[in-house]
Specification:
The protein has helices at 18-29, 52-62, and strands at 2-12, 33-38, 44-51, 70-79, 88-91. By secondary structure, it is α+β, with helices and mostly antiparallel strands. It has a 5-stranded mixed sheet. The longest helix is centred in the first third of the chain and has 12 residues, at 18-29.
């Protein structure tokens, strides 16, 4: 079943290649589209779509992130699949 997952990661997660790591992990898992970006409050936000099992694997990865990250908290919300993304990208602004 395809789904949409919104993830917010808190802790020491900026400046440690979290976004690049999330993009790499989405590619490794395969079949995940969406984006990842830094948030103004020092966190990282992910919006991803794909098969629920694959999204669960990405969510699990976000619980620890890349080497150097210190994840303190992860919040997530399951949403309805929209099919609006073609790939998984790093976003460098809120636009």
């Amino acid at each position: 079943m395809r789904s949409r997952l919104h993830i917010t990661v808190f802790g020491d997660v900026q400046g440690v290649f979290f976004r690049a790591g999330a993009q790499d992990e989405a590619g490794r898992i395969g079949g995940i589209t969406g984006w990842v970006r830094n948030t103004p409050d020092g966190g990282v936000e992910v919006l991803a779509e794909g098969e629920k099992e694959k999204l669960e694997a990405l969510l699990e990865w976000c619980g620890h992130g890349p080497a150097g990250a210190v994840v303190e908290k992860v919040e997530h919300e399951w949403l309805d699949f929209k099919g609006e993304f073609k790939d998984f990208r790093v976003r460098y602004s809120e636009g």
